[in-house]
Write a structure and sequence with these properties.
By secondary structure, the protein is α/β, with parallel strands linked by helices. The protein has 6 helices and 5 strands. A 5-stranded parallel beta sheet has the order 2-1-3-4-5, sandwiched between helices. The chain is globular. The chain starts with a strand and ends with a helix.
Length: 146
Amino acid sequence: MKVYLSGEIHSNWRTEIETAAAELDVEFSAPVTDHATSDDAGVIIMGAEENKFWHDHKGAKLNAIRTRNAIEAADIVVVRFGEKYKQWNAAFDAGFAAAKGKALIVMHGGDHQHALKEVDAAALAVVETPQQVVDILRYTLTGEAP
């Protein structure tokens, strides 16, 4: 089963899921989580831009190639919303996954419940912890509850 892990990049939630799901037959993918690489890849590959708008535009489009491909290939998309930043890109990924009919799991704390109500409504599961994601993956693959 292919699982795309989208969302905040400031904690080790991806590693927690991958480690706890190591015995499951799951292939994980994710966006580039290094800020500098993600932000600058467009101009590194396609050429410098003086205007910051076009710099960011190139990076966003290049990252969209990677993200769209990974979401399309995924069986399940997990989108984590962290506490520190507003992850507009994560919300976009959740909407794209929902529009593509992907099984969507959304992870965030209770303090984001109201702000993410529309995203949560599109999800098949809304959880707060990486372990809950792993439990869903295990149940999906084996039918076994924790």
